[in-house]
TrEMBL record:
Source organism: Geodermatophilus normandii
Pfam families associated with the record: OCD_Mu_crystall (PF02423)
Name of the protein in question: Ornithine cyclodeaminase
SUPFAM superfamilies attached to this UniProt entry: NAD(P)-binding Rossmann-fold domains
Domain of life, source organism: Bacteria
InterPro entries registered for this protein in UniProt: NAD(P)-bd_dom_sf, ODC_Mu_crystall, ODC_N
Length: 345
């Protein structure tokens, strides 16, 4: 049998455990896995691009457990009543190849992306950070705010989105959770005085949602929305500033999909796993601007799936499903159908 967490159970588990507690715990699982980075098989995800958006497969393995996620990115979806991002994924036992855990990952991707942002902010943001600017108030945004509170204790959020209804929704969701939300009149206003700037917009374009002259010394930029060829969010001159250091997950994937796709192939970046294991410096001064050029990497999904599996095992939030056909005689697969009913010739 394969363990299965469907949408209903993911929602119940998340609501009853609390998304912030999950993001905090999951970020430790992701950090543990980044610390053993060299033990994973790693490839850039496989994308199928169309004018509508992208469908991606994200595999990885540590030699004991294999994981994959199926995820789409369709920025025009909300206007048609669909979400920009939806996903599902699985863990498998490498020793026999059988899937052991299957889960919805639309919610889980929002939790894991916030958990990754939290892990990175813990390592790179200035201590004492108090104010978050959010550019983009869609599906990821509240999770991102919770991630920054889990990592840094931030409660002040300034938000900017081209859609006023999205900003109103964010305020409606975050204020009851104890956040002080300021709905800004522009991106520039949202960013002013922020310690951390999270960009989480969706547009299949080389957009500029963050301009170089808005960025104050010492800011940590958590750029999660530019995650696909032809889809970026930052003014590219930000990356070229002398006071900016760019941090990435897996360079072969980020060079295709991240903000640095606009830069030469040898553009200098620091790999996060090296910072987390002490092999490379993180922030080197309070005035340095740190940019996390986030695209989302398969190891984060493996960590997130591991975290949910460990948390729901033995609870009512998980079901057994019959996913693998298992004949008594492993060579007699046909016997399963012929024994059940006569096969017409
Ligand atoms: P969404 O469609 O729910 O929300 C995006 C929001 O951005 C919308 O409210 C839209 O009005 C706003 N927006 C678009 N252009 C804007 C602009 N120029 N200025 C201000 N606001 C603008 O999408 P989502 O699910 O919240 O995802 C946001 C982005 O994050 C997507 O691009 C998605 O692909 C990406 N993402 C990245 C990761 C990662 O690991 N890096 C994970 C999940 C999602």
């Amino acid at each position: 049998m394969t363990l299965f967490v469907d949408v209903r159970n993911m929602v119940r588990w998340t609501a009853e455990t609390g998304p912030e507690a999950i993001i905090a715990g999951m970020s430790r699982y992701i950090e543990d896995d980044f610390r053993r980075w060299e033990s994973f098989d790693k490839i850039a995800r496989v994308g199928s691009h169309t004018p509508f958006g992208v469908i991606e497969l994200m595999p990885t393995s540590d030699g004991e457990t294999y994981a994959f996620k199926y995820v789409n990115g369709h920025p025009s979806n909300p206007a048609r009543g669909f979400q920009t991002v939806s996903a599902f994924g699985a863990l498998a036992d490498v020793s026999n190849g059988y899937p052991v855990f299957l889960a919805e990952m639309t919610l889980l991707t929002a939790l894991r992306t916030a958990a990754t942002s939290a892990m990175v902010a813990r390592a790179l943001a200035r201590p004492g950070s108090r104010r978050l600017a959010l550019i983009g108030a869609g599906s990821q945004s509240e999770f991102q705010a919770l991630g920054m509170r889990a990592a840094l204790g931030i409660r002040e959020v300034a938000v900017w989105d081209t859609d006023p209804a999205a900003m109103a929704k964010l305020a409606r969701n975050l204020e009851p959770l104890g956040f002080d939300v300021h709905v800004a009149a522009s991106g520039r206003e949202a960013v002013r005085g922020a310690d951390v700037v999270t960009t989480c917009t969706a547009d299949k374009a080389r957009a500029t949602v963050l301009s170089a002259d808005w960025i104050e010394p010492g800011v940590h930029v958590n750029a999660i929305g530019g995650d696909c060829p032809g889809k970026t969010e930052l003014d590219p001159t930000i990356l070229l500033r002398d006071d900016v250091e760019v941090f990435v997950e897996f360079p072969p994937q980020t060079r295709i999909e991240g903000e640095i796709q606009a830069m030469p192939a040898d553009f200098p970046v620091t790999e996060l796993w090296q910072v987390l294991t002490g092999r490379a410096p993180g922030r080197t001064s309070p005035s340095q601007v740190t940019v996390f050029d986030s695209v989302g990497f398969a190891i984060e999904d493996l960590s997130a799936l591991r975290y949910v599996r460990d948390a729901v095992r033995g609870t009512p939030w998980v079901d057994d499903i019959d996913l693998v056909a298992e004949p008594e005689d492993p060579k007699d697969l046909f016997g399963m159908v012929s024994a059940f009913s006569p096969i017409p010739s």
